Amino acid sequence: MIPAQFDYVRPTTVEEAVQALRDGGDDAKLLAGGQSLLPVLRLRMADPSLIIDLGGIAELKGLREEGNEVVVGAMTSHHDVARDDTLRQHVALIQEATKTVADPQVRHRGTLGGALAHADPAGDLAAPALALDAQFVIAGPNGTRTVAAADFFEDYFTTAIGEGELLTEIRFPKFTGWGARYEKFNRVAQAWSIVAVAATVKVEGGTISEARIGLTNMAGTPVRARAVESALVGQSASEENVRKAAQAAAEGTSPTADADAGSDYREHLARVLTGRAVLAAAG
Amino acid sequence: MTTTENPSTPAPEIGRDRRRKEDRRLITGRTRWVDNQALTGLLHLSVVRSPFAHANIKGIDTSAAKQVPGVVAVYSAADIGADQVQLPCAWPITKDMKSPQRPALAGSRVNFAGEGVAVVVARSAAIAKDAAELVEVDYEELEPVLDMEEALKDGATLVHPEIGTNANAQWVFDSGEAGSGGDVAEALKKAESDDDQIVVRRRFRQQRLVPVFMEPRSTVVDPNSEQLTMWSSTQVPHILKTMLALTLGLPEHKIRVIAPDVGGGFGGKIAVAPEEVLTLLVARKLGKPVKWTETRSESLLTAHHGRDQVQELAMSVTKDGQITGLDVKLIADMGAYLGLVGPGVPILGAFMFNAIYKIPAYRFDCTNVFTTKTLTDAYRGAGRPEATFGIERLMDEAALELGMEPLEFREKNWIKHEEFPYTTVSTLTYDTGNYEAATEQAKQMFDYDGLRREQQERRRRGDVKQLGIGISTFTEMCGLAPSRVLGSLDYGAGGWETASIRMQPTGKAEVVVGVSPHGQGHETAFSQIVADQLGVPFDDVEILHGDTQSSYKGLDTYGSRSLAVGGIAVVKAAEKVIEKAKPIAAHMLEASEGDLEFSGGKFTVKGTDKGVGIQDIALAVFAAHDYPEGIEPDIDAHATFDPENFSFPHGTHLCAVEVDTETGFVSLYKYVCVDDVGNVINPLIVEGQVHGGLAQGIAQALYEEAAYDDQGTLLSGTLVDYTLPTAADLISFDTANTTTASTTNPLGVKGVGEAGTIASTPAVVNSVLDAIRHLGVKDIDMPTTPYRVWTAIQSASGHAGRADEADVASPGAGLGSTASDISKGDTQGGHL
């Protein structure tokens, strides 16, 4: 478990990191929490010539409120996301999902931005980010730009972050007062999701007035279960109504098949877990 | 000399919940594992491994690897004679057993993915690894041999064409022929034509598992000391030393093997590993110390696997529930080669399929098969979990067909407590046991009747989460010994064990044992035994082990033998110390030996207050100024113990699971086990052994499988894919003990190391099936993953399922899928 040789730099500002990316060329890799990159390096599935460690950039860490948004620095650890009071109050869904990531060691090292930029279809944070309409702030040689979650995830392990760019922060709109549930299905606690459902709903007077649902590992990118969302709006949050609406959960998905699940099973799980997630979120 | 006014006997150590004295250094990481050894001038070895399961080696180009700065040498097999080595198999189960040559490195053909083809030696492990990637091997792919049953058919591709067959050996026990019971063919035939009997036939699959010890294997060889010294992360330093001498033609007295603290084994470190031999060969060739340490992926791929059987079982039983015959037909996968005791592992099952039951006619027929997979050998329980699973699943199936409560059916057939000692149909004599007592206690702790009621209620309501209850009433044979019995099974060694006690001048005791702990807590348990035997404080005892220079004789640790065999050797050595001290005590007390009694660490003159402590005698013989004529001034002693019988722990395990019928997910709901392991030295250690054992047995039922694709590539090559459970996946176990002392050893102890693993697997699978049988599900292969459970429910209700299951590792995982994304596409040399 020894990586191939690489050069290593540890910039202290975003500007320096962008410069390092420019100097490093095609073969540079950004190191955030390292929870995906390090195993890949150690198994020699990748051998980049330069590692740019973002761990020394203070401006990439931490959370703050800005008007109607909560802004999370890309290098904020899962552990810090999971216990932040502001997120608990305004963006509970991302927090619920973060609590299920792997195990405590991983949550202490892994970062929100690292996980989102890695864009593993079985990772747990992309689907809630999509459901919450998060905005991704990306820095590059020409300054910063902002990309909506719907445009950020392009394919398996592929995002809108371009050559020479890095993700600096994730801006979540406030969903104050919404119920949230991340319903994760995996074989053992520290494993990746076979399927998971991120649901957050606004219930007023027993009726669902708004609903956001994102699906994990039902395609190469996270998927919004829009048919379920629209079927839920205006319904009372009864088990029967919710389960009926959840029948549309697999629409527009294209799940893979592997030893843990065939695609028919993933579609079935998406329907069952969507029902459960919405009921829990509405409860 | 001391005279005691008020002799007070210290509280006995045996039975005390002592915290393990070794844990401070182990859990703080302040110990020296093999990989921590840093010798001057140490070189590092990396093994180049085949990515193909079956291939001819057409050529190996080492030139690029040799150019890497820091590389000392690159060797293929012939360069170091590694292709001429025959790694040993110490258990030739039949006279005509087929044994292919197992080299240390493949010469002309590789027979499993992961087999070594070359080694790189360099000044650092990183350089060795970098250069190993540059070794170019030209392979000509051959057909892999993956299915055990296909491999036995005429015209099958042969793993080893030179032995002319894929069958390693067939081993048969027949109670009719042995005279221990009737003819099972007759019994089954009679049952088939008898209206008052039924025959229950089932086929079960024992999946392949990986032992997954915490510490990866590591070996360091220093060829320059007077004795060549090998440090190795092994369970068997003594066996390794003797086997290295025999295998390589080295004088045994010129070899020293040291197993320092070893981080787990579970049978996976009972081996003479090719890498141990390679490290030795390279160290001798270069005259320099050399280290090899495996990666986790190398460990999963190449350290031996366990289990992997197909079981065809038939039981005849009267309609009122009396078993009349049991026929067992096994096919066991050896993998590509025979390991140290590999062929004998399934044969141990021959004595355990009859379990705790009185079976009048019994036959066991096992065929071992070669395939192009990693070899199999001992894994916690070795042969006994497989047998226990087979019989305990079959007991449930038979009860079901009879319409009988499964626990009642078991009770109807088990050996009653007043019938011990009992000689079974497979010829073993169980000394003691009380299945009624263990079962009664387990039922109460479990609230068996209450949970059955809850199960009925959930069924009636049609709950999404259905409850299932599974039973396993097991016994096992352990404490491997006795030497004569092992001899009759053609095992390559005896089963005795040794211990020595060296009394220090200051009264402290150094105890040297032949067993070789790797996580069991021997240092604590043996100290407790010595403290009671010699009457010295627990803290005055030191246990030495694992270095063949100090512990010069032993047969090491496996088969739950350390206490029941090694612990008794400690008792025998202590008895000899007392015996040797007695004449000296008599001399010191000016009394006759006949008037002395020994208790609480002191010899006292009967009827007086005169006495002398064993620790004072140790000082007296050290000074040796005044001791009786005609005896040696020494109270040290050495003892060897060879028991007359195995020990037979038993117990009743009850498992309740919830099966989510919508998703197929199985969650443990309640787990109760009452184990009878005889007298208990340290209850805390016993409980720890049971908890760990349960986790591994439950893992076989629910989580673990070493799966291969159709090319013979291991799919579970990382711990992302080989799904080990953690505490987060398990529940708090309710454990307890009943105690029927063993009568075959003076401590009355039985083994406990494997019990939890052996017993738990069928209890869990029985409970999963019990939860969903009413939906029409008949059987589910292990591990009973959510996908398999859901698919079984779907098929039973007439829905299709599993149509597009792909034979690939899970993507997600951040590793598997990333590989195709980032890999440069060059698989030469593998990526370990």
Structural class of chain A: alpha+beta
Unreliable stretches of chain B? 1-7, 810-832
Class derived from helix and strand content of chain B: alpha+beta
Helical content of chain B (DSSP H or I, runs of 4+): 25-40%
Distance between the termini of chain A: 46 Å
Number of helices in the DSSP assignment of chain B: 22
Note the quaternary state here. Answer: heterodimer
- Per the principal axes of the C-alpha atoms, what is the gross shape of chain B? globular
Taking the sheet with the most strands of chain B, its summary is: 7 strands, mixed
Quantity of strands of chain B, as a count:
28
The largest β sheet of chain A comes out as: 5 strands, antiparallel
CATH top level class name of the largest domain in chain A:
Alpha Beta
Total count of domains of chain B:
3
Spatial strand arrangement across the major sheet of chain B: 3-5-1-12-9-10-11
Write down the Rg of chain B.
Answer: 28 Å
- CATH architecture of the largest domain in chain B, please? 2-Layer Sandwich
Mean pLDDT of chain B: 94
Quote the CATH topology of the largest domain in chain A. Answer: Uridine Diphospho-n-acetylenolpyruvylglucosamine Reductase, domain 3
CATH architecture descriptor text of the largest domain in chain A: 2-Layer Sandwich
CATH superfamily annotation of the largest domain in chain B:
Aldehyde oxidase/xanthine dehydrogenase, molybdopterin binding domain
Shape of chain A: globular
List strands and helices in order, with pairings.
The complex is a heterodimer of chains A (283) and B (832).
Chain A (H helix, E strand, L loop, with lengths): L6 E3 L4 H11 L3 E4 L5 H6 L7 E4 L9 E4 L2 E5 L4 H5 L2 H6 L1 H8 L4 H6 L2 H7 L7 H6 L3 E6 L2 E6 H4 E3 L2 E2 L6 E8 L5 E7 L9 E10 L2 E10 L6 E2 L1 H7 L6 H8 L16 H20 L1
Parallel strand pairs in A: 1-3, 2-3
Antiparallel strand pairs in A: 4-5, 5-10, 6-7, 6-10, 8-9, 11-12, 12-13, 13-14
Helix pairs in contact in A: 10-11, 11-12
Chain B lengths: L22 H5 L15 E7 L5 E7 L1 H4 L4 E6 L32 E2 L5 E7 L2 H8 L3 E6 L6 H4 L15 E8 H4 L5 H9 L4 E13 L8 E5 L5 E5 L4 H12 L6 E4 L15 H13 L3 E4 L2 H7 L3 E13 L4 E13 L9 H4 L13 E9 L13 H19 L3 H8 L8 E2 L5 E2 L4 H12 L1 H14 L3 E11 L7 H6 L8 E7 L5 E5 L8 H13 L6 E4 L17 H28 L6 E4 L2 E4 L5 E3 H10 L13 E5 L8 E11 L5 E11 L6 H20 L31 E4 L17 H18 L13 H11 L19 H7 L10
Parallel strand pairs in B: 1-12, 10-11, 14-15, 20-21, 27-28
Antiparallel strand pairs in B: 1-5, 2-4, 2-6, 3-5, 7-15, 8-13, 9-10, 9-12, 13-14, 16-17, 18-26, 19-20, 19-25, 22-23, 23-24, 26-27
Helix pairs in contact in B: 11-20, 16-17, 17-18, 19-20
